[in-house]
Amino acid sequence: MSIKYLLFVVICLGIARHAYAVDLTLKPGETSNAAIDATIKKIRDNCILAQDYFFLKRLSVAQMNSIAATTGGIWRVTSAQLTTVRNACNGILKTKCNEVKTEFNVDVSTLTISDLQKPLYSGLAMSLFILNSVSPVPLQKAKQAQSWKTHINSNGDTTEFVTWSNELEQLNDCAGAQMDLLFLIDSSGSVGKDNFIKTLEFLNNIVSNLDIGEEETRVAVIRFSHFAIVSFNLGKYSTKTAVTSAINAIYYDGGLTHTDLALDLARTDIFATTTRKSIAAKVLVLVTDGQSRSEAKTVAAAKKLKDMGVTIFTIGVVNPRKSELMASASEPNCTHFIDLKSYDDIDFIVKEIKTETCKAVLNAENGVDHSNNPIPKADTTKEQVVDVTKTIQSNSGTMITVSVQCGEVTVYGAYNNNQPSLASYDYMITATDTNPGKLYIVKPTYPSTFHLTIISRRRIDPRISTCHNPQYNVSFEATDASIKVKYAQNNKEVLCSSDDLKDILEKSKSIQPVNFRISFVLGYELAEIKKCR
Length: 533
Ligand SMILES: *[C@@H]1O[C@H](CO)[C@@H](O)[C@H](O)[C@H]1NC(C)=O
Ligand SMILES: *[C@@H]1O[C@H](CO)[C@@H](O)[C@H](O)[C@H]1NC(C)=O
Known about the structure:
22 strands; ECM_Assembly_Org; VWFA domain-containing protein; vWFA_dom_sf; VWF_A; alpha+beta
């Protein structure tokens, strides 16, 4: 016989385990934007449909807008399409279907149409159908619209497909992103002057979509051929106009392709020290047409940067050495390496880079306060992904503290998902001006990086008179938290360590704790609570 006691953990604390993790990608009938994005992310992260050029996202909207019946889930996969996919799993798509089995534990050859009510299953079935019947996915929206009509939905209206896609892409995903963005541009002989100018236009295209500023996005450029040289460093220019004119003034050199020298210069010069207060993702975009002088040296130089926490995109134009650029890019390499057929295609990649770059990761350091992170002044949300590395979790867990001024911050955390969101997370906490958020993350028994997504948005608190400077602070502290636990029944207080609580949580699997924003309410057995001091 067991009597359950209600306990209140008095400090603002969240402790979670996978048993009550949120995953909308597996929720039947779910069609929210967040679930669609999380589904596509899972598919891309596992390189199931590499380089889909936003086709899956555009398709989700086009299919839902043009087919009312929800059969086949978000992507409206028909029975005939599912049959095609199932058959292909025993033939041409055998390897892919095995990957799906390994990564998601989904046996495609036995999927039924009602299984596709789950967003992930619908997305996987459509991805496999695309691989079987559409691939390769064209880059341009208009061509994607045509592929949609030809191969997926013969009643589709191609003009509407483009309109819906344009609407989708008006959203500025990068508002206020804090990023140190370095372009490495190939100025070697094989590129040619005309293509070099197209590269500069491409850079400007990306820059025009970012918020340039000292504590927002800072841009630097290194150009390279047989030597590498910093055209301008981070923070040299702090307005969009200044950055654009500096880019337009970059010389074309000609000569050999010593990519490794440029990567080394990025490490020893651009990313060697940080001169800013706020969190900033470090992102490097390498644009090159060809093959470097030494593949081994290039890959080794790129690895050193990745080890420092720099996210690397490689863009190969004309005739790149794919192996070299894939190995130099960050993981998953199928989304961080972009193979362009010509410099004319470069425009279509802007959004891809932009969306990814503003979500690039930052490696958090123990005891370092990341203060004054700006929140966009307009009514847009900002997203920042943070990786809490193993080194920080030296104690039994990590305390993450978020305070905010003139805003609202929501933090999603997870171990097994490198970009947790509303649709998929293990831990969640919110903070407002009057209520800072504290999240205690219990260290898992296996070594693992903890991932956080910090979503911030401006919010005027009526109790605070002026709000000129919306911003938030976040800090990470490896600690063995003592947790004050109060018995609801007899008002007795005991101190539990986080390890005690972890133990209790592990043992009380049948009891679902409820996570409130301020207090954490648990129900568990009397015998177990005796373990606490
Ligand atoms: C790309 O990433 C995959 C998965 O991590 C890896 O197995 C593969 O070797 C990588 N490709 C290259 C060319 O480095
Ligand atoms: C963030 O930290 C800075 C300096 O450490 C401090 O001045 C500021 O008040 C803090 N802001 C919030 C919202 O806690």
